[in-house]
Amino acid sequence: MVFTLPDDVDQRPVVIDGAGTLGRRIAAVYAASGSDVRIFDLSAEQREAARDYVEENLIQTQQTLGLHPDRRGRVEVSDDLQEAVAGGWMVIEAVPESIDIKTEVFGELDRLAEPDAILCSNSSSIPTSQIIGKVEHPERVLNTHYQQPPELNAVELMSCGKTDEGIIDELMEKIPHYGLVPFHVRRESDGFIFNRIWAAIKRECLMVVEEGVASPEDVDAMWEIFTGAGVPPFRLMDRVGLDVVLAIEEHYADVRDGIPEGPRKLLRDYTNQGRLGVKSGGGFYDYPS
Fold first, then answer.
1. Is 225 part of a structural domain of the chain?
2. 30: pLDDT strictly greater than 80
3. Were 24 and a residue from 53, 169, 170, 274 both cysteine, which residue would form a disulfide, CB within 3.0 to 4.6 Å?
4. How many distinct structural domains can be found in the chain?
5. pTM (two decimals)
6. Which residue range(s) make up the domain with 103?
7. Rounded Cα distance, 146 and 59, in Å
8. What is the mean pLDDT of the chain?
9. 90-93 and 152-159 as β-strands: parallel, antiparallel, unpaired?
10. Among the three residues 150, 185, 220, which one is the final residue of a domain in this structure?
11. Strand pairing report for 37-40 and 118-121
């Protein structure tokens, strides 16, 4: 049987387990969308700080995400996990990045949450396949990695390896209702999508400065020029020409140790098909004349 969201999903709360920096930001997004939110944390100070954050940032969150709900969501805080998850249709874990902690948390969530509740991890680095050791129903567990909402409103969805595919399909449809943009991570990956890309950019920026090639100020100034133009990476490669990009990558592989073969293999697959980018009418994208 294919998973479908409950009919009463919009009358049920979203539950956030963990009232830290990201937990409260995620809570603000759902409350700003008109959804009731429950925030669980053992720390009274964290709970109250999270409630204050949501209240103080709700209008700004609505403006940033372009949300115009009929009502604002109620925000409740609790130090009792069973009370917090009661009735929730989705529970989002936002606790510290520790496999042991998250394994215990998901065991508890699986035991206490509603049978039809989706159990999500906001981890930025730990695949849920590593934290389902105490979960009896892994088919309802997945990663939903939020960036820094509301400004960075991407959410990466990744299976734990046993996730019901219908859950990912349903969330891909539902999450945009909250002003968020979901991306399906199509296979398990440490770092998901953007964090892997950012890791490479960050590392190369540091190398450029450490090697004395440029100053941090010059790197940042060039970054602003390129990102300000708004041309994303695969569109830019299509503009340059994939045969040219391949030649550049082959040169780097000749002069630097440790350059992986995979990117060049992908480029060869495209160039061997005559897909060279804009100049040939098709590369990673099609360009009808």
1. no
2. yes
3. 53
4. 2
5. 0.90
6. 9-185
7. 20
8. 96
9. unpaired
10. 185
11. unpaired
